[in-house]
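Side project, low priority. Logging it here so it doesn't get lost.
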Amino acid sequence: MPKALINGSLHFAACSETEATQKLVTQNLACALKRQAMRMTGARLDDAFVSMAPDVIDEASVESVFLSVEGRKLQGVRYQGLVYRKVDAFKPDHRLQAYCLAQTLTEQSVSYLMTRSEQRFVVWAHY
């Protein structure tokens, strides 16, 4: 069965609605079990997140833009033709928080992008 990994979520193509529902339930259960196992591992949490982390793009590879929303200026980036707004930035030694935020966005079906530089990790949500 064809599968695609998009923003950390597994998408199944060409299957019935029942099969898709069963696969989604199985995927959600597996994700919950992974989170529970990671909570129990304590100090090894960093390694676990790195192994299941989303792709992180070098910040120099994206184009900085400013967005105007309801009179407010927001930081944003353009990458591969899509525009993203800044959600939050983290110091490199707090990258697990960036990964957690990315996981939360995935669970909310929000498309996102993660960038990194020597100074920070940034999570951007599709605008």
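Brief comment: DSSP finds three helices and eight strands in the chain.
Revisit when time allows.
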